[in-house]
Amino acid sequence: FGAEQIIKLDLCKLIISLLREEFSPASATTKRNLGKSLFGEICEYLSDNLDKKLRLEDMAHHLGISKTALKQLFREMVGYGACEHFIKMKIDRAKTLIREENYNFTQIAEMLGYNSVHYFSAQFKKIVNMSPTEYAGSIKALTGEAEKFSQ
User: Fold this and answer.
1) Which of 25, 91, 106, 151 has the CB geometry, 3.0–4.6 Å to 127, for a possible disulfide?
2) Alpha-carbon gap, residue 57 to 120, rounded angstroms
3) Do 72 and 55 contact (CB within 8 A), yes or no?
């Protein structure tokens, strides 16, 4: 009779411990992986919408999370805010378009959702530490030097 009760108690303890593990708060690793997944999803969303003016509310709504959670996610993943990351993504795209030499600065600004080429230039200079014109000139100079060495 005693042995039967001990077995029942041990089984109950086992079941309770299994349930606690299953329903316990996510571990740090799980949270980190979830954060990376959310970050990847929002970066893809931002990349697909470089031609638009997105606000923090738009980004948070797309993910289905609060603005505070979105801010915290970006601070943890890249060390700065979501809007700043979006601007940097736009400027990286602008640098690519400038290197391709298919569009002028006004067209590039419009393609990236800027109403003003002046505002685009100001943001470009803030991020790259040179104006779009200076950047284009530096690329041409580097390309010219590379051609000299290849001949």
Assistant:
1) 91
2) 22
3) no
